[in-house]
């Protein structure tokens, strides 16, 4: 399809700019005036609407296709929460920071406050901040809080953060951005971070250990309490990557287990859409004695029941401009409120049931490196198919031809040829059966006609794309 | 309740296939002592009740206040097509385009977005968005440390104080040094900025228009930075790019900014997006996702995520940034906004903002006892000095339905009587005249 710039016709105008009701001003001085024209496309509104409508049709999405992208919790995004999130479109955030302004924005402030309370109860933490704008941003904020804690105790020697090799890439990257060096602990044959190696890695220079639970293999780590105890004995704090919280809603609260900091992804567990890559929202929760290090400002409830914005002087400062991705938070607040206690428990139960169902139906044909009850997702390996020259990517591309968004492939890194399937609770048995049939078909083709898989996809607007060429050409905008 | 479609029969069949007696049995891997001690949430509600509750909350969000406030976030008009197109579920219920063949919609749109950002800022390579304006400035600072292998960043005091707070936090963790240079009145103190640059300096960070609304020429500053092999980072307000010299024209090496004003609703603070763009030679140092053009085996043009070896999922702790999910949908809104207006409309819009602000400047500075603090040119914001404490005046005007501006005292000690006023194309002459009349009233009666 042509680019919008290629559809541009000189002199064509789009939307009309409001008319002026003031005199034209003297022009800006030459030295600060723009010289080159703003080369934006010149298209009419209908052309524009067709262009982006037709572009949208070149996407797979949750509303059009089953999208079992592991680790991403691509559940259905309810329409009523979309509507709820849009109700605050005209509310200027600066109002809340003006003297006396908080009294004008009690509605949105109450949502920030109540969502923080809901998330605190769900995770078992003392307090929550909604400021971080995505999961990775939450991780970084959480590690900055941990750094502030050690510093306040005068414990400045701690310079390492421990992560398991199965952790998401954001974990080590976030800890590094907060100034730490990374120690990676391998996975044991039982599928979790190797406890003995972890014990050996612990010492009084370790600031924190970051765990994902259920881990990125979709397995619940039964040793998490022990890991917390070992870390705490060594004076380190424990960080819980809550990206996979969907599996344990109402079942486990990381705060009860002894974790010090957690982030949750509202765009995964709490039903907010993924936006083609974002926006998300990554609130963090902390236990009692870390509350004072949370970023500024805080939304508090006064004794008279009204809400106010307060500075948080001992905190790590600000990590984003205002109160976080508010319209996303409002959707999550609406989601939690609508589902309620029983609804959220149903979410984790059905998510786990669906994942185990897919795992049971596919394990005859696909290698299951860790054959045990999984939580919200299951991780296979295409290692058997590789013997016929078929890789995880080939299975993925075949799924596209059959109308399914592929699972996550080649992650986690500690499983070769990983195929990570997360159906989520909002899919029906019938949809999953159709997916399973195609996965089995792909396994069959791998044995009988591997070429079919190598050629896929053939039904899409473009076939497999030359990524090496893209990296070499570095053509990232049109001339 | 949880939008779970399976019937009791489905569940029974699935359990049979798994070989489990109950759903509870699937949670057996969780030791009993780790089970939740509490899950104290109220029962759920229906759509109707939910919307009632949410509407009640939305009723108290300052909708009847006329905003003359900015501070990085602006009340601009949004063409109807932006909401309609960005509401297509094929866009908003997709995720990161890891599988390009079934994500060409998102990928091509992001490529067009990157092109738009390059053209607005006068740069050569943009990524596919960052979280927001503040984190974009911080990421640019980190990028300059990587490029120059130095540890000192000079931060101009007329950069948005909220953004400076974020930058300081990001630099602190890495033990990099931030040197703050106080502004000279409403302008960057160019002489002091220039004399602060030395061979240890990674970058100088300035903003245009700055927090006081002033626009300045940074060409000499760029030259001085480059003489020391340091970078110039310019944070800019995209709407101003229709009229004001772009970072590229002024010699910047990295352009960043808050993208909200391009078609994103105010929404009490987000979601918005941050943008970052640079010279082609620094492309490998950019943070976050980048979309590149390529071809398929039949030679057809297509788009993919490219240069991923900079990113966390490959490089882990050596990545250029930890960012994973970004603000794609907001960037898409920005793109559609720009394309809706087009070249001419965008320039007209910028001119209109400027004209309205110049008009407001003249009537407000004519109010008894009120002075204009900016000595040079401004775009759609300017700073007034009032004869009284600005915070008090703002509070009294709020009672009269006017958000008159952002009082500077809380950000710049000693500037308690200063007020930054913002005038977008949405403010009418009547509203501006009314603000002047109310200001006179609050000051003098
Ligand atoms: C396990 C895990 N941790 C962290 C993240 C990072 O979250 P985000 O993409 O919101 O930054 C992800 C998501 O991609 C994840 O799957």
UniProtKB/TrEMBL annotation, chain A:
Lineage: superkingdom: Bacteria
InterPro entries documented for this protein: GDC-P_C (IPR049316), GDC-P_N (IPR049315), GDC_P (IPR020581), PyrdxlP-dep_Trfase (IPR015424), PyrdxlP-dep_Trfase_major (IPR015421), PyrdxlP-dep_Trfase_small (IPR015422)
Residue ranges constituting the Glycine dehydrogenase C-terminal domain according to the UniProt record: 348-443
Catalytic activity from the UniProt record: N(6)-[(R)-lipoyl]-L-lysyl-[glycine-cleavage complex H protein] + glycine + H(+) = N(6)-[(R)-S(8)-aminomethyldihydrolipoyl]-L-lysyl-[glycine-cleavage complex H protein] + CO2
Domain Glycine cleavage system P-protein N-terminal positions: 27-296
NCBIfam families on file: PRK04366.1
EC annotation from Swiss-Prot or TrEMBL: 1.4.4.2
Protein name: glycine dehydrogenase (aminomethyl-transferring)
Oxidoreductase found in the keyword field: yes
The gene coding this protein: gcvPB
Record key words, sorted: Oxidoreductase, Pyridoxal phosphate
GO terms assigned for molecular function: glycine dehydrogenase (decarboxylating) activity
Function: The glycine cleavage system catalyzes the degradation of glycine. The P protein binds the alpha-amino group of glycine through its pyridoxal phosphate cofactor; CO(2) is released and the remaining methylamine moiety is then transferred to the lipoamide cofactor of the H protein.
Organism: Geomonas anaerohicana
Cofactor(s) it depends on: pyridoxal 5'-phosphate
From TrEMBL, chain B:
Gene Ontology MF term list: glycine dehydrogenase (decarboxylating) activity
Family: Belongs to the GcvP family. N-terminal subunit subfamily.
Keywords, sorted A to Z: Oxidoreductase
Function: The glycine cleavage system catalyzes the degradation of glycine. The P protein binds the alpha-amino group of glycine through its pyridoxal phosphate cofactor; CO(2) is released and the remaining methylamine moiety is then transferred to the lipoamide cofactor of the H protein.
Matches recorded under InterPro entries: GcvPA, GDC-P_N, GDC_P, PyrdxlP-dep_Trfase, PyrdxlP-dep_Trfase_major, PyrdxlP-dep_Trfase_small
Protein name: Probable glycine dehydrogenase (decarboxylating) subunit 1
Transmembrane segments: none
Enzyme class: oxidoreductase
Quaternary structure, from the entry: The glycine cleavage system is composed of four proteins: P, T, L and H. In this organism, the P 'protein' is a heterodimer of two subunits.
Listed HAMAP family: GcvPA
EC number, UniProt record: 1.4.4.2
Reaction catalyzed: N(6)-[(R)-lipoyl]-L-lysyl-[glycine-cleavage complex H protein] + glycine + H(+) = N(6)-[(R)-S(8)-aminomethyldihydrolipoyl]-L-lysyl-[glycine-cleavage complex H protein] + CO2
Domain Glycine cleavage system P-protein N-terminal, residue spans: 3-438
